[in-house]
Design brief:
Layout lengths: L1 H12 L6 H12 L2 H17 L7 E3 L3 E3 L7 H16 L1
Antiparallel strand pairs: 1-2
Length: about 90
Amino acid sequence: MVGEAFLYMAITQGQSALTDSQRKALLLAAAKSFTVASRMKQSDELIKRYAAPSTPCLVIGGCYRIELDSVNSEDELIALIRFLVQKAAA
């Protein structure tokens, strides 16, 4: 984790004398890492399981999918999310 924190700082805050090509190589290596590949695979599986029609798509409790076109306002969306979170927790 310390190495990852250093790389993040080096790339984003310019804390070291990395060249642009070194920064690019570090970012590509991170993007192709086992951790990122695993997380992407998990995300792809969830998208398929939830049958997400588009982005953004809200799935509450793994079983309630909110179609954003079906709500008329932000307040209505928040109320629906709260209701479904309580229902999923019951």
